[in-house]
Amino acid sequence: MSLEPRTPQRPLIWPGSVFDLQDALDDSAQPLYIVGGAVRDAFLRRPIKDIDLTTAGDAVALARTIADRLRGDFYVLDAERGVGRAIIESQNGRLLVDVSRMRGADLGDDLADRDFTVNAIAVDLHGDLNLLIDLLGGEDDLLAKRLRRCSPQALAKDPIRALRAVRQSVQFDLRIEKATLADVRAVADQLHIVSPERVRDEFFKLLESQRPAAALRVADALGLLDVITPEVAPLKGLGQDEAHAFDAWEHTLRVVEKLNGILTTIGPTRTDETAAVFEYGMVVMALDRYRAQLQTHLDRPWPNERSHRGLLLLAALLHDIGRPATAAVDEAGQPHFPGHAEMGAALADQRASALRLSNDERARLRALIRSHMHRLPWQRWDQTPTRRDLYRFWNDLGPAGVDVCLFVLADYLGARGSHLDQDVWIRLLERLRLILEAWFERRDEVVDPAPLVDGTLLMETLDLRPGRTVGAVLALIREGQAAGEIRTRDEAFAAARAYLSQ
User: Looking at the DSSP assignment, which residues form a beta bridge with residue 149?
Assistant: First the structure.
C-alpha cells in the first residue's frame, strides 16, 4: 500500500456539508486530510456527523477559521495536543469538525499511529474526495468485514482501544482478527490506567450503539467488564425465583436488549419490522399516543453530550447488582432478595461516581434502580390505580417516573423470555398507560394541582409558627387536592384543622 490516492472499490458518499467544508478552505495552503471514521462511514454509506481533519500546520487556528467561515462555534478541544473543534449547523444536522496536528512527521506516520486499519483511511480535502489514501489496507478489511489493529503496539499504546474494538466490531458487523483479539484480552486489565472520563465516554458509546446487549456480551467475554463494571460479575450463575427464566446475568443482558428494543419502538427510527414483533407491536398500540412526549423526554442531553438512552441502558446493566449481597432462601427453597433495589441503587451510585458521572446523572440512576420494583405497576389487575396512588408515584419520582415505566416493561420481558404471558403483557401496558396518562395529560389535575393555600396564609389563619408542621399540612392539602378530596380553600383549612387536632 502507498500514500498515492486511488479509486476505491465502491464510491464514497459524502453529505453536502463536506463539500461546503471543502469550499470554505479552498484557499488554505497547508495540506489537509479527512481521516478516520468519516472516511470509513462514507465508504459504508453511513450517516456522517463527525469529521476528523489532520494537518501539519496550526490545527487550532484552522478549526477557528472553519467555525468563522461556516458560521459555527469553536473551542479548543485539547490544547496540549493541538486539537480544535468547530460545530457547524448544516442541512444535514449538526456537524462536529475536529482538527488535529498530524501524529508524526507526515500523513503516513499519522495513519500508522491510529487504532484500526478501517479507521486509518484518508482523503485529501484539497483534492478529489472520491479518491482514497489507504496505507494499511483498511478498505480490504472493510470489504472482508475484519477489524485489524494498525500495528502490534496499537492497543498497548492506548488500552481504551480494546473497548473501542468491541464497540466497532458489533457496530459495523466486523470480525476481530486473531492477533487483534489476543491484544484486546492482553490489555483488558490495563484499562485501570486510562482516565475514568475516557473509559466512561467510550463505554457510553458502546451502550448507545444499535446492539448494546451483544456488545456487552463480547466485552464480558474479553474481560473488559471485570474492569469497567466489576459489580456485574457476581450475577453470573445466580439463581432467581420462578418468575425468572434465567440466572441474574442472563436476565440482565436480556433487560438491556429489551429496553433497547422498547426505546427503538417509541423512537424516531422505528420501522414496520420493529413493530411486527408482538411485544413491541403492543407497545405501539398502548403508548403511541405519547410517542412525541416520550421522545422529548428521551432527547434530554446530559453533560458532554451523553445521551439519556445511554444512561437508561447503564441502569439496565446495573439494576440487579444488589441481588448477590441480599440473597436468601425461604422455607420452600425459593430464592429471595429483600432490599436488593435499595442495595443496588447504592452500589450503582458508587460505580457512577467512579465513572465520573454528574450529580444529576447519579441521582437519576439511583432513582431508577431504587424504584424498578415499584408496586404500582404490579398492583392487582382488578385494582385500578387511584388518583392518590398516581400522585404519590409521580410526587416521589418526578420525571424519573417515565424511565421507571419504560424500565418495568423491559424488566418483565427480560425475565420471561419465550415464556411471555401475552395477557399479562397487555395488562401491564394498560397499567403503565394509565400511569403515563397522569403525567402527560392530567398533570395539572393529578400530579401538580394549583395550590389553594400557601404557607403564609396557612400560618396566619391557623396561628401556626414556621416549621415542619406547616410543610406537613401543605403536603396533606396538596395530596388531598390530587386525590379529588379537597377542592376549595375552605376544604383545605378543614383538612388542616382535622390533621392538627390529631
Answer: 116
The reported pLDDT for the residue numbered 454 is 86
Residue 501 has pLDDT above 90, yes or no: no
Domain residues of the chain, as ranges? 1-144, 149-228, 258-445, 449-501
pLDDT of the residue at 149: 97
Q: Which residue type occupies 92?
A: N
State the Cα–Cα distance between residues 490 and 479, nearest whole angstrom.
Answer: 16
**Residue 166 to residue 221: CA distance in whole angstroms:** 10
Query: How many CA atoms lie within 13 Å of 224's alpha carbon, on the beta-carbon side?
Result: 29
Q: Are strands 328-329 and 146-147 parallel, antiparallel or unpaired?
A: unpaired
Residue 282 to residue 433: CA distance in whole angstroms: 12
Q: What DSSP character marks residue 448?
A: S
In 3-state terms, what secondary structure has residue 150?
coil
**367 is written with which cell numbers?**
432513582
Output the nine-digit C-alpha cell for 56: 501539519
CATH topology for 1-144 is Beta Polymerase; domain 2 (3.30.460)
Gyration radius (Cα) of the chain, Å: 27
State the average pLDDT for the chain.
92
The pair phi, psi for residue 371, each rounded to 5°, is -110, 10
For residue 77, what is the enclosing H or E element?
Answer: strand 73-78
269-282 per-position pLDDT tens digit: 888 888 888 999 99
pLDDT of 80 higher than 60: yes
Name residue, grid cell 465520573.
Answer: 356
C-alpha grid cell for residue 355?
A: 465513572
Question: CA 19, 25, 27, 28 torsion: positive or negative?
Answer: negative
pTM value?
Answer: 0.92
Dihedral sign for Cα 138, 140, 143, 149, please: negative
| pLDDT in the model for residue 1 | 57
- Helix/strand/coil for 46: coil
Name the grid cell of 463: 396561628
Q: Is 116 strand, coil or helix?
A: strand
* Interval 134-171: pLDDT, tens: 999 999 999 999 999 999 999 999 999 999 999 999 99
- Rounded Cα–Cα distance for residues 50 and 30 (Å): 21
146-147 and 175-176 strand pairing: parallel
Residue indicated by cell numbers 436480556? 254
C-alpha to C-alpha distance for 261 and 251, rounded to whole angstroms: 15
- How far apart are the C-alpha atoms of 150 and 116, rounded to whole Å? 5
d(CA 41, CA 46): 5
CATH classification (class only), 149-228? mainly alpha
Predicted confidence at residue 428, as pLDDT, reads 95
User: In angstroms, rounded to a whole number, what is the distance separating the alpha carbons of residues 207 and 167?
Assistant: 9
